[in-house]
Amino acid sequence: MSRLLVVHHSPTRSTRALLDAALEGAHHPDIAGVEVQVVPALEATSDDVLAADGYLLGTPANFGYMSGALKHFFDSTFLQVGGALDDSGGGDPTGAGPTAKRPFGLWVHGRYDVTGAVRAVTSIVGALGWRQSADVLEVLGDVDEAALERARELGGTLAALLA
């Protein structure tokens, strides 16, 4: 059975609603053979990452960046799960660690702008060699039914890729 690891920081109603919708999509009855493991970002470990076949990440955009919780997740797991740095200390996407080429998806919620948060997360997962397997779900302002449907599609897409 494949495993989809969902690592999230969902401290608000809006981010929680996106998480719930993504999980609804990942648990769609037409998708079989996929275990969905949901772990808050402050609790996720490198063992969780290494045991998964794909990743779904969720964060609010705080002050133009990903949440501190998701940043902590990356900081505490990066090297153990195959992240590589170049000579300047930047991410090296040519590293071929054990999680390279695994699919990932991302949702980000912000009130005004999510650009910095999306750029930061995609830079880090690029240095891990993860493969972006769906468009980033960027939600600004209130979370409406259209955003929830896109979150369901995101969760369903990642789970279906692993089925």
TrEMBL record:
Annotated Pfam families: FMN_red
The organism of origin for this protein: Janibacter terrae
Coiled coil stretches, renumbered: none
Gene3D superfamilies given in the database record: 3.40.50.360
Classification via SUPFAM superfamilies: Flavoproteins
Protein name in UniProt: NAD(P)H-dependent oxidoreductase
Ranges where the NADPH-dependent FMN reductase-like domain occurs: 37-87
